[in-house]
Backbone:
């Protein structure tokens, strides 16, 4: 209990430092990245932005993502045991991001200098995997990378995926690994904590499953392969319905979502996989707000603060690249979740 007494106020403080959504609407009108950084002078990011002389999309993305990583590390230091294990399982999504960058580059033969600056080794240091991950980054063959991946805890048959020209499955395999580990760590928590947190993550897991189903035809997946890649969601859409929906239309999928509690998702002819994915993540982040209600001397406010900070960071990254590409403000607004 003592660890939570220290951690919960930190979580509420992090929530209190988040940028007002209306300010994000102002940022999309920035003429360029220099102006965007100037507009952010009164935000928690100012100190790190102030030293950047020539901002680029990659540089600013790194600043924002690193901020999220740093905040998560600070929060996790206050908890121990099963709660720490869950926060580490949640934190591992940053390692998944690192792996996706590296493996896509390796498979496509992209030079290291193009992607290395986007790899965050602080993530690996926090997970006590830094030395092994550096070894992975130095590997120059699919076979060598596969062996190191196993040492990192990822059973990924990289050689077969490349040989069979199915490298597009890498993202799904890594994401499945993340959700399986997350659910396993969640099951170790108390009933109240785990139930409320699962309610929040259910849309995110359903999003993964639905995107897999929607892309299964393009990926050339059989029904058996789809079933193996799906993640069982205790509070979400049953696997049987998902498998049967592999040939359904988007409109049919939206109706299934409504059957399982997603009344917020609009039923319209304009619905697309991208919009469906965004709407599910909107529900996910909206539910994160509920983790600050009720009994707060639990891990719930920590998870809520992390997810709301994640939403802010992803919004800022979307704005950064929209401004850099000089997209119309209305187009950038469509990319963010407010």
Residues:
């Amino acid at each position: 209990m003592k660890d939570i007494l220290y951690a919960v106020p930190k979580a509420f403080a992090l929530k209190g430092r988040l940028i007002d959504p209306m300010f994000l609407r102002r940022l999309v009108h920035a003429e360029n990245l220099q102006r965007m950084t100037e507009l952010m002078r009164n935000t928690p990011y100012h100190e790190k932005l102030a030293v950047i002389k020539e901002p680029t999309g990659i540089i600013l993305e790194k600043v924002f993502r690193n901020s999220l990583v740093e905040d998560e590390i600070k929060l996790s230091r206050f908890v121990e045991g099963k709660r720490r294990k869950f926060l580490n399982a949640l934190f591992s999504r940053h390692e998944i991001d690192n792996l996706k960058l590296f493996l896509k580059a390796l498979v496509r033969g992209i030079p290291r200098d193009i992607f290395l600056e986007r790899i965050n080794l602080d993530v690996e240091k926090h997970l006590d995997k830094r030395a092994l991950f550096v070894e992975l980054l130095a590997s120059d063959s699919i076979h060598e990378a596969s062996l190191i991946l196993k040492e990192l805890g990822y059973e990924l048959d990289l050689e077969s995926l490349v040989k069979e020209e199915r490298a597009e499955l890498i993202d799904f395999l890594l994401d499945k690994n993340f959700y399986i580990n997350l659910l396993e760590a969640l099951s170790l928590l108390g009933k109240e904590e785990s139930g409320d947190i699962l309610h929040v993550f259910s849309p995110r897991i359903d999003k993964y499953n639905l995107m897999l189903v929607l892309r299964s035809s393009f990926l050339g997946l059989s029904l058996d392969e789809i079933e193996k890649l799906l993640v069982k969601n205790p509070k979400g859409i049953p696997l049987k319905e998902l498998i049967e929906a592999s040939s359904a239309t988007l409109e049919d999928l939206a109706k299934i979502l409504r059957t399982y509690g997603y009344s917020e998702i609009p039923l319209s002819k304009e619905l697309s996989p991208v919009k469906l994915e965004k709407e599910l993540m909107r529900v996910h982040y909206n539910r994160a707000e509920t983790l600050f209600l009720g009994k707060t001397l639990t891990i719930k406010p920590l998870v809520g603060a992390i997810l709301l900070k994640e939403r802010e960071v992803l919004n800022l990254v979307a704005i950064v690249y929209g401004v850099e590409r000089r997209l119309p403000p209305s187009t950038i607004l469509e990319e963010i979740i407010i």
Q: What stands out?
A: The chain has three domains: 1-79+299-338, 85-189, 190-298. The two ends are 34 Å apart (CA to CA). The chain is about 70% helix and 0% strand.
